[in-house]
Please model this.
Amino acid sequence: MSHSRRRFLELGAATSIGSIAGASGIGAARDDRGDGDDGDDGTDPEVALTARQEPGNAFYWVLPGERPLSPTVFGTAENPRHGTEHLQARIDQAKEFPSPLDEAIPQLLEDLPFLVAAPDEAREPIEESDGESIAQQRLAEPTPYSNDAEVTSGAFEVTYEDRRPYDLPGEPGDTPETIEFDAQFTDPAGNEYELEHDHVVQPPIPGYETGGGVLTDGLLHGVTGTGSPLFPKVYTYGASWGVGNVHIDGELATEDGFRVIHFMTTQTVRDERYRMVLDEEMPLEPETTIAGQSHHTHGVVLPIRPTPEGPEYAPVPTAFELPNGEPQPFIHAM
Model:
């Protein structure tokens, strides 16, 4: 394709907000081809969007913790939504998949219900409110979507290469979508991490619509059905789902197999105190966010290991020890 047929749209200029999000930005190159060429033959993607942060700037290492629940998404104690009944419906839907995954996915959803729901029995009422939130319930079990985080450091660059705007039946890795990826960061103890992305996948979770494994210019999370509803519904510049390895202090940590790696560049969902706001509070004005800008990027390594029989629960072997003496079983770096 001729470069004259590409357009570059700068979505975020370089900024400097103290040590947070300095020298970061995102931009998209869009292909103006006619219909019929979806990039499956190795040609340029329809959209190639890049997000980056230069070395020396702040990362946030998210700690496991509770999550206040949006009434819009999760209802009330008397009338719960996206709860146990919803979880069971998604499990039943997964059992109808005509593939070996019809056994693996139901078990995965039982092991990691936060992928699609907040079970009723895991909720508890919020007795006292500080006046900042309309949440009446919290998910008491620790998840990757808490308000607790430690400031670390790191750099990354990810280019989402969107060739196909829809999912198709088939194996999770059977997709033309690709990303260019480089990420290094530290945990609160100073251990150094590098993520090695191997390939894009279409997550075989019932109801997920991931645009072939790379999605641009869409909505995720909340009530969309794609991504955990514990994260607020958010406009997404670009997102990818894939598998790869984790290296810690120069050594391969995931010797037992790949883990699922999810990156997304979205509207900022954290306020100036790093509280992840509820769906009802979106969108945030840039000046009220932790980064002082309209977008930020999230990298999540989920405790999910792909196997020939399908994905299974497997903690991420991090080097960061929690107060209970156990290593943190996931990575959520922002």
Remarks:
- The radius of gyration is 19 Å.
- The chain has one domain: 3-64+146-333.
